[in-house]
């Protein structure tokens, strides 16, 4: 994972519909090179965390199989 400033990038940021309106959520965007950027929706100007596609897919698989349920 790396942190990167994405100023000037034309990205489509999405967030879960489960995040509600309280502003406590993360947003994700697919980068042109296939990596995934993750940022805090409350501080969208801060550097985003950048994950490779393999890292992102492993995270999603862990979420789906309950690997993080104890956190």
Q: Which structural class fits the helix and strand makeup?
A: alpha+beta
What's the rounded overall pLDDT mean?
Answer: 87
Assign a percent range to the helix content.
10-25%
Shape: globular
As residue ranges, the low-confidence spans are: none
Total number of β-strand segments? 4
The helix-strand sequence is EEEEH
Number of domains: 1
Output the number of helix runs. 1
Provide tags for this entry.
alpha+beta; 71 residues
Polypeptide structure, described:
- The protein is an alpha+beta fold.
- It has one domain (2-64).
- The chain is built from one helix and four strands, in the order ββββα.
- The chain has one helix at residues 53-64, and strands at residues 2-4, 26-30, 36-40, 48-51.
- A hairpin with a 5-residue loop joins strand 2 (26-30) and strand 3.
- The protein is globular, with a radius of gyration of 13 Å.
- The protein starts with a strand and ends in a 7-residue tail after the last helix.
Brief overview:
The chain has 71 residues and is an alpha+beta fold.
Helices and strands, with pairings:
Elements: E1 2-4, E2 26-30, E3 36-40, E4 48-51, H1 53-64
